[in-house]
């Protein structure tokens, strides 16, 4: 009898200890209508800029600290904001074509956070980015302030089989050379 009482007391102690030290992970859904992704791509003779809409996303939080997340961008919404009329339509069509992001077959891009490290008032983020069916690791800093998260990311498009106009893959492009890296300015609301 004493042994059963002792075993029960020990089991309850273990359960209460696990409950006390186990915190719940909270999923914070991103408000996609209030969030923005702005892109800038440069070429030898200038640059272009535009936007891409976020389709869905969430952060995983534990004890009010970032521990993970996943985000999907709607590549069919690639827009050009620095041109108008036929020039704008032509560039948007080209960006959506197989020369660039091939949105007919690759309608979304995905980023999954794999590791998070708090560095003062920012988080060091590592994760896997998938564009055009190609997945590669990327790392960047993310600043969180209240219900807003912001970051600037530079992506090497050639790692995602987006090589059109790349001086790294084609010779004699002259002033038609498009730089391999493009920049994203991301502002997420949750």
Automatic annotation (TrEMBL):
Coiled coil: none annotated. It holds the Pfam family YceI. It comes from the Bacteria. Keywords: Signal. Residues 27-189 form the Lipid/polyisoprenoid-binding YceI-like domain. SMART domains: YceI. Residues 1-24 form the signal peptide. Gene3D superfamilies: Lipid/polyisoprenoid-binding, YceI-like. PANTHER family: PROTEIN YCEI (PTHR34406). This is YceI family protein. It comes from Psychroflexus lacisalsi.
């Amino acid at each position: 009898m004493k042994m059963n009482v002792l075993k029960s007391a020990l089991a309850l102690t273990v359960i209460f200890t696990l409950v006390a030290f186990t915190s719940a992970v909270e999923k914070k859904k991103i408000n996609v209508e209030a969030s923005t992704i702005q892109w800038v791509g440069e070429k030898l003779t200038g640059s272009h800029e535009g936007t891409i809409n976020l389709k869905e996303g969430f952060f995983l939080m534990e004890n009010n600290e970032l521990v993970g997340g996943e985000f999907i961008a709607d590549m069919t919404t690639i827009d050009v904001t620095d041109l108008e009329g036929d020039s704008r339509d032509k560039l948007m069509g080209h960006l959506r074509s197989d020369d660039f992001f091939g949105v007919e077959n690759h309608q979304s891009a995905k980023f999954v956070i794999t590791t998070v490290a708090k560095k003062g008032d920012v988080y060091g983020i590592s994760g896997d980015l998938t564009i055009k069916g190609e997945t590669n690791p990327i790392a960047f800093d993310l600043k969180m302030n209240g219900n807003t998260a912001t970051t600037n990311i530079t992506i090497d498009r050639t790692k995602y089989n987006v090589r059109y106009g790349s001086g790294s893959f084609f010779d004699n492009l002259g002033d038609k050379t498009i730089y391999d890296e493009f920049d994203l300015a991301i502002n997420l609301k949750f």
